[in-house]
Write a structure and sequence with these properties.
It is a single chain. The protein is mostly beta strands. The strands form 3 sheets. It has an 18-stranded parallel sheet. α2 links the parallel β1 and β2. It has 2 domains: about 190 residues, no CATH class; about 240 residues, 3 Solenoid (Pectate Lyase C-like). The protein is built from 3 helices and 49 strands.
Length: about 500
């Protein structure tokens, strides 16, 4: 009879568990035997590890509120569930020794509703280590005062959701070396000393709907193809040597529906990567907005970059990239900079109110295509070309800039633009936007549009603009081979490649 009463009380209590901060109720199927830790029930264990040692595959361990000073190890088990009474008051404390919780060679382990704290304070220790283990889940937990938060090593299909990471010394989450198909969802990362989430040499991982505040770096995806960053909010991250979000030596990475603001360095830096898709995101009041460095066949679509101290979007030593339907305005240097970059496309963009140039094409092999853009009220110049050739600047509204276009030792096709006047660019800035050419430059600007272009299609006013989206973007075939120079990147501080484990 007592056993039945205890079981009924447990079910009622379990059904009412909530987590502070508005997270969802933990819903875990109760199968196998039920073991209890803490509390005053007969036969309850006093240590979590003792309950684990006596559990079998498929069992559930319920842990009453309390501070449990121990290290937890789960080895070679299947489908074990460990549930704390509540996140704030059910604490696993390693007392600064080793990993707090370790999962080795196990599958289907679920842990929820704990504070996990005080791991060993060196590079080798973490709040939770998952090694050679798949389909595990950590939810509604808080990790604090650990060196690293979570390390997943050669572990696939794991989930980390509704967790909080506070002021950790190393990586809050490190997904490393062949750890694939993992998901981080709806987590909070506060003041990570190294990185909020670092994905290293692992594929098909997802970071969704998570918040990063005051981290040295919010997210790094390095040598990790086919990863996704969606719905991230990144605020006041970065440092003198670290960018807020970094994607390096990776392919087919998606960054979508993100909001990155107040970065202390570059908001998003992409280096030596290809087929990176950046869309529907905001980059506001950062030191610099987006930098693509030695990046190929990548795309920025439907983004807004504003208020950067330096340039809004910088494409450096790169080719075959596309910037489409993007706003880059009120930045301290340029709206868009193409620096030693060729064969790129800028279409249907709004480049307005920038301190220097709306778009600056600086050296390189040229063959860039700028069409159907609004280039307005940039203080120095709307379009600046320096030692470049065969760039096409067509069907743009170039209005109310310092100069409409400055062609410096360059060759360009600048036909079909509207220059703010029916007289085209021949007014020398007296009314409308003029064009200035240095000796040896060639700019073909006739014919020009006689009125502001209200509807513009990127192929020359004939067909609607191509809305690529994700599906058609990844169907594109890369053109040619990548090239790598040895020049110093522009506006990227030395050391931005981050800490690689």
């Amino acid at each position: 009879m007592k056993t039945g009463i205890v079981a009924i009380v447990f079910v009622l209590l379990f059904s009412s568990f909530m987590v502070e901060g508005g997270y969802d109720v933990v819903d875990v199927a109760m199968e196998g035997n039920k073991l209890f830790v803490g509390g005053s029930g007969p036969g309850n264990y006093s240590r979590i590890q003792d309950a684990i040692d006596h559990a079998r595959n498929g069992d559930t361990i319920f842990v009453y509120a309390g501070v449990y000073k121990e290290n937890i190890e789960i080895y070679n088990m299947q489908d074990l569930t460990i549930i704390g009474e509540d996140m704030e008051n059910t604490v696993i404390d390693a007392d600064f020794n080793n990993d707090v919780v370790s999962i080795y060679y196990s599958n289907g382990i679920e842990i929820a509703n704990f504070t996990i704290r005080n791991s060993g304070q060196s590079y080798y220790y973490s709040g939770l280590e998952i090694s050679y283990s798949d389909y595990c889940e950590l939810s509604n937990c808080k990790l604090e005062n650990d060196f690293h938060g979570i390390i997943a090593y050669k572990s696939d299909h794991n989930k980390i959701k509704n967790c909080i990471f506070n002021d950790l010394q190393g990586q809050s989450i490190l997904i490393t070396v062949n750890s694939d198909y993992n998901e981080i969802k709806n987590c909070q990362f506060n003041y990570a000393n190294w990185t909020g989430t670092y994905v290293y040499k692992s594929k098909e991982n997802k970071i969704t709907d998570s918040t990063f505040y005051g981290c040295d770096t919010a997210i790094t995806v390095y040598s990790s193809p086919n990863c996704q960053i969606k719905g991230a909010t990144v605020y006041s991250c970065g440092s003198m040597d670290s960018v807020s979000v970094f994607i390096g030596e990776s392919q087919n990475v998606i960054l979508q529906n993100c909001n990155i603001s107040k970065s202390k360095n570059t908001a998003l830096a992409v280096s030596q990567s290809s087929n990176i898709f950046i869309s529907d995101s905001y980059f506001v009041d950062d030191v610099a907005g987006i930098i693509l460095y030695k990046a190929y066949d990548s795309q920025i679509e439907n983004c807004t970059v504003s208020g950067s101290k330096y340039s809004g979007v910088s494409i450096e030593y790169s080719s075959r990239d596309r910037i489409i339907d993007t706003v880059s305005r009120d930045n301290g240097y340029h709206g868009i900079l193409l620096y030693y970059s060729d064969s790129n496309e800028v279409k249907n963009c709004e480049l307005t109110g920038n301190t220097y140039f709306g778009i600056d094409i600086y050296k390189g092999d040229g063959n860039n295509d700028v069409r159907c853009c609004t280039i307005r009220e940039n203080k120095a110049c709307g379009v600046y070309l320096f030692e470049t050739k065969n760039d096409v600047i067509n069907y743009n509204n170039i209005i109310d800039n310092g100069w409409g276009m400055f062609v410096n030792n360059s060759i360009t096709d600048a036909r079909y633009n509207y220059w703010g006047s029916i007289f085209g660019p021949l007014t020398f800035g007296l009314f409308g936007d003029g064009i200035w050419r240095t000796k040896g430059s060639k700019a073909n600007f006739f014919p020009w549009a006689l009125a502001e272009i209200k509807q513009c299609y990127a192929d020359g006013l004939q067909n609607p603009p191509e809305k690529t989206g994700l599906n058609s973007f990844f169907k594109r075939e890369p053109q040619g081979k990548n090239f790598f120079g040895d020049e110093t990147p522009f506006f990227i501080r030395k050391g931005f490649l981050q800490k690689i484990p």
